[in-house]
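User: Design a sequence. Structure:
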């Protein structure tokens, strides 16, 4: 067995490489650049550079590999076109097994309760990380139908040394940017990087081969409170994060509705100070503006102030620089409320 691990410099990819080497399996770590490969070099592992957007180089890198583990990360083009090239070249190279590391994000930011098991239908809005991962899954599944034996693993938040997820939470706690809902009682699905690597090892020879999804989560039921308390202790953070109810967090994280066009709002904008300053550059419009100001001023300063307040509204007081700014995107992960469990 000779296993190519694509995206070997990332948290998941490095864990897979390290685990396979410990098992005595010949492993080919493939990376897009050496800039983030310090984990590999620190263990005396020399990765092979490959650009997944160049099929020729990818074909050479996969030469002689019997299995491929895809932990590819990057922008949308790298993740999608790179995956297309990868499955095509793996199929051409005669790989006997393709293990694709996806994500529970394919079930959306706020998945339905039924998404606790893999049989649920993925549902995610276009454009985000979950949407890209779902498109990757579909690429793998189409190639599986053409003969490349494939399996898809869906981990939740990956934890362990160097976890991006835990480091982001720690940073928010240090800056006071995490909003904790209902005392942190919400469930947080996690998997240790080593456990994910073990799942990838098993998937090289076990499980479905038609592109089915498998959740990969730890058995322990973890809450946001347990994660926050652990990180506060590790970071010696005395202050507790600000708290709110789940409903308050839901309202805070909702996208503001786009206001409907209204005539009065348009009039207010038209006669606002900024617009009038621009219009006064025209000599004729400057005369009209002056005449209107004189007309309103004839009613007295009190009436002029009331008219200005009705048009421009009250003076807006800017936020103080020290005011806390919550990381709504991270805090809103508490709204997922689903503990993903493998039902296979």
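Assistant: Done.
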């Amino acid at each position: 067995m000779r296993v190519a691990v694509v995206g070997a410099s990332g948290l998941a990819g490095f864990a897979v490489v390290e685990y396979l080497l410990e098992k005595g399996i010949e492993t080919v770590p493939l990376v897009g650049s050496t800039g983030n490969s310090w984990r590999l070099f620190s263990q005396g592992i020399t990765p092979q550079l490959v650009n997944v957007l160049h099929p020729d180089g990818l074909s050479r890198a996969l030469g002689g590999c019997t299995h491929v583990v895809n932990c590819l990360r990057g922008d949308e083009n790298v993740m999608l076109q790179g995956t297309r090239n990868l499955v095509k070249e793996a199929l051409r190279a005669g790989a006997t097994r393709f293990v694709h590391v996806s994500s529970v994000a394919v079930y959306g930011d706020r998945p339905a309760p039924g998404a606790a098991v893999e049989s649920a239908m993925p549902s995610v809005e276009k454009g985000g990380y979950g949407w890209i991962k779902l498109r990757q899954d579909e690429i793998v599944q189409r190639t599986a139908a053409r003969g490349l034996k494939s399996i898809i693993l869906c981990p939740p938040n990956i934890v362990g040394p160097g976890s991006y997820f835990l480091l982001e939470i720690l940073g928010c706690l240090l800056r006071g940017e995490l909003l904790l809902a209902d005392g942190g009682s919400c469930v947080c699905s996690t998997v240790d990087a080593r456990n994910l690597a073990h799942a990838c090892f098993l998937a090289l020879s076990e499980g479905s081969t038609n592109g089915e999804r498998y959740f990969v989560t730890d058995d322990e039921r973890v809450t946001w409170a347990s994660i926050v308390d652990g990180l506060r202790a590790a970071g010696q953070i005395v202050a507790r994060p600000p708290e709110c109810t789940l409903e308050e967090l839901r309202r805070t994280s909702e996208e503001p509705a786009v206001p409907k066009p209204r005539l009065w709002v348009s009039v207010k904008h038209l006669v606002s100070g900024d617009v009038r300053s621009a219009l006064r550059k025209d000599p004729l419009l400057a005369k009209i503006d002056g005449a209107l100001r004189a007309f309103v001023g004839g009613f007295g300063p009190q009436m002029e102030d009331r008219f200005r307040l009705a048009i421009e509204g009250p003076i807006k007081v800017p936020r103080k620089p020290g005011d806390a700014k919550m990381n709504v995107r991270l805090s809103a992960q508490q709204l997922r409320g689903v503990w993903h469990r493998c039902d296979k």
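The chain has 14 helices and eleven strands. The first helix runs from residue 11 to 22.
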